[in-house]
């Protein structure tokens, strides 16, 4: 039998071990092929706004997929090599050289890789159309896009597979040549219980792990004060704390539990707690990685979901009017006539405002004092446009700023109010009371200066007293609202075609809304599918590790059967163990993600609880499926041992 024939035979025999690996690898690379195809496809890109950078988005997604697939392949390959150590040792024991064994393993690796490559390209080509339809739906685009087979995407996918085969082959050769026969035959043995951890040292490091995680969580509440430093501290403390948690804290807790039981664990705890006591330390690296990847995935999906579904609300905070003209009476009248000519129903209102220079005082810091541009807007006129506002008392002011949360901590900013606004009027200082801050705009984003709401009487008083001062300016705003969404789309096209110049920064609601919707739609598309790959990869690694542990624990199960314990009694302990194995990284990852979302919440003004709950539910369901697969694998092993015992 040739090396090639032996490799084919081995693949057929090991298909029950490889099927999930093959599926995860195939799914990941199919997505890579789809993303690369979209990256090179001009049809979808031509339907979107120029500000939506499709090429960069899919390029970044492709790089992240390569990293995920690389980590997954190396981890899974290491687990498979460990499981097959006895087989590799037998080949050497019968006289085959390490070079022959290396060739055999590499040929098998290439065959699996080629099979997965062909399946990924075929499957990717078949589902490309579905992915394009999902993307068009997320971007709110209509049209039929024909997706042909992308040769550049296929070549890039081939290059990635070659890279994975090279890396995993080097891993195989390295493992083979640095292992002795004794190492190979003992690799799949269940390790003896480690010595109990030193009480004082372990307790200190166990508490340190919890303290580091707690410190990271505490930082998440005010990360935007010193963003870069606090973000690094938060990330570093949570990563270090998670590692200590899995390597020392959890193991120390298990030993304390056994000590409390005086070593009398009983059958269920012996099959659940006891294996975890000596496997948790060995698996600390992978459990830490899985937990952090889970947290990152849930955070990424939750934030993308929140951005996407709050686009209209967020855009309306910035742009309360569909269209706005500033001191452009002729253009405003022309635009109104164009809309009427097209039969578009529009509400047109004029708002007369005043622009001055002034100082908003900070009562908490007297040195924080500098002049800035102030836009005084009359509440009575704004109410006529349909604005949801209350008219302030004469002499009082309300500041409107949609970007207030992005500028700093809102709680800290709120401590500045009420305060005073100082105006210099021909050598005299006049003060007005700034009552509070509202986190939205009352005039469109491109209006000049800080938007201040006052009564019309107060604005007239300011206009009278500030006339003739430097930078004083009267401003006429022509505002337009188009109630019908379909008509708004037509009005936006007309506005952009005729009234927007390259040298002037202007916004209309519909264009801004569509641009942000497409950007966030692309973000949620990439985040959702990357998250799915993360989930399948981490779930598969946990599954493979439990397969290995199941093989190591066969002798224990056999002994228990000989002592008269039935399948259900043994499975009760195994199910408890799997619940702990899968729930620990999932639960801790979810906790991490909750505080990570809290840390990033200053970037988004809508509620993230609903999208985060959806992401966590999906994550839990898929992890539950992996847990069921693992339990089924254990049950098959125990049943087989039971059958052999009866024979």
Automatic annotation (TrEMBL):
Membrane topology: Multi-pass membrane protein
Pfam families: FtsX (PF02687)
Transmembrane portions of the chain: 18-35, 55-81, 110-138, 158-177, 198-217, 229-250, 287-308, 522-544, 579-604, 610-631
Compartment(s) of residence: Cell membrane
Keyword Cell membrane part of the UniProt annotation: yes
InterPro entries: ABC-4_Integral_Memb_Prot (IPR052536), ABC3_permease_C (IPR003838), ABC_permease_BceB-typ (IPR027022)
Chain ranges of the ABC3 transporter permease C-terminal domain: 61-179, 529-630
Record-level GO cellular component terms: plasma membrane
Biological process per Gene Ontology, one example term: transmembrane transport
Keyword terms: Cell membrane, Membrane, Transmembrane, Transmembrane helix, Transport
UniProt record similarity statement: Belongs to the ABC-4 integral membrane protein family.
Protein name: ABC transporter permease
Taxonomic source organism: Oceanobacillus indicireducens
